[in-house]
Specification:
Elements (H helix, E strand, L loop, with lengths): L5 H18 L4 E4 L2 E4 L2 E2 L21 H18 L2 H7 L4 H17 L6 H20 L6 H18 L5 H27 L4 H28 L5 H12 L6 H4 L13 H5 L13 E4 L6 H16 L5 H12 L7 E5 L3 E2 L4 H6 L7 E4 L7 E8 L8 H17 L3 E9 L5 H9 L12 E7 L5 H8 L13 H13 L5 E8 L6 H6 L4 H16 L3 E7 L10 E4 L7 H13 L3
Helix pairs in contact: 1-2, 2-5, 4-6, 4-8, 6-7, 7-8, 8-9, 12-17, 13-15, 13-21, 15-17, 18-20
Length: about 575
């Protein structure tokens, strides 16, 4: 799997911002290849807006251009199409509905205002890419496929007042000559009523019904010469090829896996109220107290050796962090400047030395450290494989933050036992009541408190390398706990960076509630923290896209190479969330 670069992350953020601006809906954002409203994926309004295959060599459009065009088109649909009216007027047959949806999308794309030329360019590039790939797929070699493809090109050409692509002219020439006389009146009606959705739909329905009838006639003719089942199979094949939909495996090279998420019936039935069966066994503990002192020393030596071999420029990183998190504040003046405000005390120098230029003073705005960054590490079993590199990354970041005068804290979350432990045993003894809520013994770990500098906590931080600390993970409660600790701090700007490689997972809780119970609680917690606004909650996904949980996030490839580039990406993530 290719690593998910900061450039790809930035492209996703730009697509999200563009979609919000075009639609006027602040809750839109992009995850993977879909546009979401909050946590709900939006329907794809037209067949050509499904995710397309990777850009072929020789294609002028880049993957970002294609994705931007797709997201712009869906956002425009939200703004310019009346969905209830569209559903009311849409024809029932699948092929007719496909055509009707497509024509409505073409109408929307054709009425983009003149002051948005960039959006028009994005839409044109996306459609051109889709049309060329569809042509190359061999769709036009079948009669039904050629009919649909010809209709797409001539209707878009008419509505957008552009020529049909040269590469397709010969392939569609005969079909165009056959259908234009039949649908010509309604084609003209589409153009004439382009600003009136209801009247436009009358002509769109007529065209959709006509083409549907043509396909029915073609299928009936084919049925006379073949098996009765053949036409249906042929139609399925054409409709399947038409969207150029890809399986998840085909898209795997382009993006990391998206964190699996869904709706929890147990969470919904309790009115979004999270339940805990018992807190009797929960604990908050210094992680170093769970590791023998001699082993901590061994872990620390091992970590130091790895850091020395990484070649990381700590001073440069600390300057980057200071610039990103320490905003400048007015603090006195600098004198003897060559520009700025005239310093009255130096006017006599102008008389004695007319060539003197250093007669000015300027206000001084040095960076002021008033921020704290808390790292919350998922210490579930799957993270054990990443523990060495996570420890290395956290150690380097904490050292650099300290050099920049920025406070830091390192926390972790896990459970004391597998499969619910004593909490699960209590539940069994008490008759297994339904929907018990969280059913485990959580353990919140403190590797480095905010009050201690890295120099004094360096040995304790090596406890991250203790493998048997890693069990199961209750993410939502851990995020709440970490945010509460941050709010107790005096710093004005507070950041929480959550590092995880998967969804919330606790076997006993999932079995006795449902598999998305902890997932839904994490979403609710993060949304609540975002509404409060005094802590910026960010996610770093290791081999996973955590955007279902964290609006601001960074996805990193499975390999997790700790280098200057990765650390710069983390700084950029923090800078983008500066409060």
């Amino acid at each position: 799997m290719k690593p998910y670069s900061r450039a790809q992350q930035k492209a996703t953020e730009l697509c999200s911002a563009g979609a919000r601006a075009l639609s006027g809906e602040p809750g839109l954002h992009v995850r993977g290849n879909r546009l979401y409203r909050q946590h709900t994926p939006l329907p794809i309004p037209a067949v050509h807006l499904h995710p397309a295959p990777p850009v072929q060599s020789g294609d002028e459009a880049t993957p970002f251009m294609i994705k931007r065009g797709q997201m712009d088109a869906i956002a425009l649909h939200l703004r310019y199409s009346n969905r209830p009216l569209h559903r009311q007027l849409a024809p029932q047959p699948p092929v007719a509905r496909l055509i009707f949806d497509l024509l409505e999308q073409f109408r929307i794309e054709a009425i983009v205002p003149d002051h948005l030329p960039g959006v028009r360019t994005n839409l044109a590039r996306h459609f051109s890419h889709w049309a060329q790939l569809t042509f190359q797929s061999g769709l036009t070699e079948t009669q039904i496929g050629n009919l649909l493809y010809t209709l797409v090109l001539i209707t878009r050409s008419r509505l957008h007042t552009i020529p049909v692509p040269e590469y397709a002219e010969f392939a569609i020439e005969a079909t165009r000559a056959a259908i234009v006389p039949v649908i010509g009146t309604d084609l003209a009606g589409l153009k004439r009523q382009i600003h009136n959705q209801e009247k436009f739909a009358i002509h769109a329905c007529a065209i959709a019904d006509t083409i549907h009838a043509m396909i029915d006639a073609e299928l009936a003719q084919q049925a006379e010469n073949s098996d009765a089942s053949q036409p249906d199979n042929l139609l399925d094949k054409v409709l399947a090829a038409f969207p150029l939909l890809l399986s998840d495996e085909a898209l795997a090279d382009e993006t990391l896996s998206l964190a699996a998420s869904g709706e929890s019936k147990a969470f919904t039935q309790h009115h979004q109220r999270y339940q805990v069966y018992t807190r009797q066994y929960d604990e908050e503990v210094q992680a170093s107290s769970l590791v023998r002192d001699a082993l901590l020393v061994e872990f620390r030596d091992k970590l130091d050796e790895k850091i020395r071999n990484q070649g990381i420029n700590l001073r440069h990183l600390s300057r980057q962090l200071a610039a990103a998190l320490n905003p400048p504040q007015r603090n006195g003046w600098t004198f003897g400047e060559e520009e700025g405000r005239i310093d009255g005390r130096r006017l006599s120098q102008l008389i004695s030395s007319p060539s003197e230029r250093r007669l000015f003073c300027q206000e001084r705005y040095p960076p002021t450290a008033n921020a704290i960054v808390s790292f919350l590490i998922d210490c579930s079993g799957s993270m054990r494989d990443h523990s060495e590199k996570v420890a290395l990354m956290i150690d380097v970041m904490v050292r650099a933050l300290g050099m920049a005068g920025i406070s830091s804290e390192v926390l972790g979350f896990t459970t004391q036992a597998w499969n619910g432990g004593r909490a699960y045993s209590d539940w069994l003894r008490q008759g297994r009541p339904a929907y018990p809520g969280r059913l485990s013994e959580i353990r919140h770990l403190i590797f480095k408190p905010a009050e201690r500098h890295w120099r004094h906590a360096r040995k304790e931080m090596a406890a991250l390398l203790k493998a048997d600390l890693f069990k199961e993970g209750i993410d939502g409660e851990a995020v709440e706990w970490a945010c509460q600790r941050l709010r107790a701090r005096p710093e004005a700007r507070r950041f929480l960076l959550v590092l995880s490689d998967g969804c919330p997972m606790d076997t006993a809780t999932n079995l006795t509630n449902d598999k998305f119970y902890l997932d839904n609680h994490l979403k609710a917690v993060v949304e609540q923290q975002q509404r409060q606004g005094d802590v910026a909650v960010l996610g770093i996904g290791l081999g996973l896209d955590l955007s279902p949980y964290y609006r601001q996030n960074l996805a990193i490839g499975d390999s997790l190479e700790v280098n200057n580039r990765l650390l710069a990406d983390i700084v950029t993530l923090l800078a983008g969330a500066r409060r």
